[in-house]
Amino acid sequence: MSKKNLQGEVWIFAEQEDGKLQDVALELCGKARELADTLGVKVGAILPGYKVADLAKTLFAYGADKVYVVDDPNLARFTSSAYAFVVQTLIDKHAPQIVLYGATPLGRDLAPRVASATRSGMTADCTDLQIGDVVDAKTRQEYKNLLQQIRPAFGGNIIATIVNPEQWPQMATVREGVFPKKDADEARTGQIVEEKIEIPADMLVVEALERFVEAKKVDLKGARVVVSGGGGVGSKENFQLIFDLADALGGAVGASRAAVDGGYIDRDHQVGQTGTTVRPALYVAVGISGAVQHRAGMQESAKIIAINSDPDAPIFSIAHYGIVGDLNVVVPMMIKAAKERVVAD
Prior knowledge:
Blueprint: E1 10-13, E2 16-17, E3 20-21, H1 23-39, E4 43-49, H2 56-61, E5 66-71, H3 80-94, E6 98-102, H4 105-118, E7 122-126, E8 128-135, E9 142-153, E10 158-162, E11 170-174, E12 191-194, E13 225-229, H5 240-249, E14 252-255, H6 257-261, E15 282-286, H7 292-295, E16 303-308, E17 321-324, H8 327-344
Parallel strand pairs: 1-4, 1-6, 4-5, 5-12, 6-11, 7-11, 13-14, 13-15, 15-16, 16-17
Antiparallel strand pairs: 2-3, 8-9, 9-10
Helix pairs in contact: 3-4, 5-8
């Protein structure tokens, strides 16, 4: 079912938990603002939950023009069917042209369900979103102002640009940290649209009885210095060098997917397309080859230092400083230098 509406708004799903907006929702507000300004339309935020209307002013501050509030005790806790029904109903009623979700566990559950229900395309884990014109290679038909959904594909060997010219809304999920959170403008105001949606009984058959929340072991997003180790570190025991260097530099410990898959460190530390996106003042990549998935998660760091024994490693193409050498020699020298500087200061 085509829902193409050139004047449709750009929407974000305002994910919240216990009355607190998730960072990814605010990050998406900023990107949605850019896309909407290019298209000349408004930014809308979908805000389902219970007693969450006060969150609208925060969404306005971060770029939303309208907030569609669905306040219902049945939405106090996320359940897939009920939330998907609410979002689908709002899409059917208001026909936005773009809908963006965070690629969180909740977003990854919700977005495909809504895409299926609305017969829309959906691209997961985008690393960039742009508005542009596209020409169909077969028919030569030109499509104006499509959402270009950019992400690594085929194991990271290529960067794919995916478009949805017909079946709208155009949908995408984006990982937390991919887009920077813009500064809030507390003076901004907007329109709260209160929506009353009768959720069918068969959408409420699942009830959340108890919830367990495990705190993150590391705050990679908030760290000014991140030292990451890759598969080249060689072993879990050798990964202690990464911890020691991070400690000497006052930073957090990150890792590539190869290091996580190798059992050197747990997944909370993973940086990249399937991990956390970071933008520290200093990023040190140790024994990391630099596959596109990893680069997508750290290439916007202010300064990048790469240490690798392979002079042709792709990581050097984005590094500001590169050291070709054995990490078992180089890293202890860096630790010593960092500690001596601290003592001197």
